[in-house]
């Protein structure tokens, strides 16, 4: 091979050397919008971009300068550097200064303010998660590792939960529409909980979860929604609208995956507590019933004794009254008998009186007699037949 050539290593080292030797490239002030911000071992890694291009940025020792947020517009003072082994061009930042929030970030803040004013983030709209969900839908991409993490976490705690996976695109232009449609399908599938999930990514990758379409779809859900988007530091509009925000998809799985073993122990403990309480209440009821019967028997005994005393007293009073009545009756009877005895004709006859009787009847007055009239005189021991020889009248003067 006669043609002259250089190796890749020679090319990359040559270009790297050119950049290092070019004074105009030292301490450049470059303005752009940052995205994909991450901090590892106190070093900042991100992408600086504008409408036409982008360049990776690395800042060693981020504590000595400003830490930007995704979507923020900044001014970076630094020097470009070509890492020869990989042929990767990066901007090594010395200082970072905020210039103003980037366009994408401004649009996001405006949308958040709009949705907040409409009440989409209001606490009173939040629905509580069921304590023991048995049907859980996961709206995510089957292409990612998220669904495997959720499934393995759920099964570690619980083998009863039925997982329904709604496969959607989680980034790209069609993602907002697909996510919103997936949420509606999950909401109509009779699920107990819906998890909206995706793994970490750049600020731009997570933008579908900052869309108004997805936010309104979550707000319209009848089923409780858990938003589990990105890493712990990533916060999206879907987190604000959802009923519960989980820091990661795995954390969302732990929220719904109640432990069957713990639940069984809990129910067993509660049943034992209920049995103890029931036994105590039965014992207490028996004591109360026995005490109530004892008090009732005592009251009945007291009342019976009171009535018995009244009956005895009434009986005694009635007996006394009866004795008095009988005594008075006997006295009156004796008086009547004495009166009758005094008026008894036989007694009169015994005392020397006679009773005169003719064929016409009793003769009680002198005028009942006539001379020659026969009559009979009755005495106590017999009678005498007689004839009237003379009738006279008493001398009233004598």
From TrEMBL:
Please indicate if the UniProt record lists Nuclease as a keyword: yes
Say which domain of life the source belongs to: Bacteria
A GO CC term assigned to this protein in UniProt: exodeoxyribonuclease VII complex
Q: What is its main location?
A: cytoplasm
- Which EC number(s) does the record attach to this protein? 3.1.11.6
Q: Which UniProt keywords apply?
A: Cytoplasm, Exonuclease, Hydrolase, Nuclease
Q: What reaction(s) does this enzyme catalyze?
A: Exonucleolytic cleavage in either 5'- to 3'- or 3'- to 5'-direction to yield nucleoside 5'-phosphates
Among Pfam families, the record links this protein to:
Exonuc_VII_L (PF02601), tRNA_anti_2 (PF13742)
The residue range of the signal peptide is none
Q: Where is the OB-fold nucleic acid binding domain?
A: 6-96
| Location within or outside the cell | Cytoplasm
* Stored PANTHER family: EXODEOXYRIBONUCLEASE 7 LARGE SUBUNIT
Assigned protein family: Belongs to the XseA family.
Q: List the protein's name.
A: Exodeoxyribonuclease 7 large subunit
Organism of origin: Candidatus Stercoripulliclostridium merdipullorum
């Amino acid at each position: 091979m006669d043609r002259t050539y250089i190796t890749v290593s020679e090319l990359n080292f040559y270009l790297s050397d050119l950049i290092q030797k070019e004074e105009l490239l030292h301490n450049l002030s470059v303005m752009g919008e940052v995205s994909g911000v991450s901090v590892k071992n106190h070093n900042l890694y991100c992408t600086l971009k504008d409408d036409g291009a982008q360049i990776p940025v690395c800042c060693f020792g981020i504590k000595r300068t400003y830490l930007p947020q995704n979507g923020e517009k900044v001014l970076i003072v630094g020097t470009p550097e070509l890492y020869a082994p990989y042929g990767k061009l990066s901007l090594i930042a010395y200082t970072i200064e905020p210039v103003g929030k980037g366009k994408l970030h401004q649009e996001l803040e405006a949308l958040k303010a709009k949705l907040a004013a409409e009440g989409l983030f209001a606490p009173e709209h939040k629905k509580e998660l069921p304590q023991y969900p048995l049907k859980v839908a996961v709206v995510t991409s089957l292409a990612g590792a998220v669904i495997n993490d959720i499934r393995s976490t759920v099964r570690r705690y619980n083998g009863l939960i039925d997982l329904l996976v709604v496969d959607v695109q989680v980034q790209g232009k069609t993602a907002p529409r697909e996510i919103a449609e997936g949420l509606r399908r999950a909401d109509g599938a009779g699920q107990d909980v819906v998890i909206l999930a995706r793994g970490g990514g750049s600020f731009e990758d997570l933008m579908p979860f900052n869309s108004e379409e997805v936010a309104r779809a979550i707000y319209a859900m009848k089923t409780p929604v858990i938003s589990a988007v990105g890493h712990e530091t990533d916060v999206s509009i879907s987190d604000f609208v959802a009923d519960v925000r989980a820091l990661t998809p795995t954390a969302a799985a732990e929220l719904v995956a109640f432990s069957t073993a713990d639940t069984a122990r809990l129910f067993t403990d509660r049943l034992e507590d209920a049995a103890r309480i029931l036994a105590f209440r039965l014992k207490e009821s028996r004591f109360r019933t026995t005490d109530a019967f004892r008090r009732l028997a005592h009251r009945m005994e007291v009342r019976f004794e009171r009535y018995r005393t009244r009956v005895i007293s009434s009986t005694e009073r009635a007996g006394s009254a009866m004795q008095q009545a009988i005594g008075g009756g006997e006295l009156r009877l004796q008086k009547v008998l004495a009166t009758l005895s005094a008026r008894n004709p036989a007694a009169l006859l015994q005392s020397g009186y006679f009773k005169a009787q003719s064929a016409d009847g009793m003769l009680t007055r002198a005028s009942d007699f006539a001379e020659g009239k026969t009559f009979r005189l009755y005495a106590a021991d017999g009678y005498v037949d007689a004839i009237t020889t003379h009738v006279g009248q008493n001398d009233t003067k004598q």
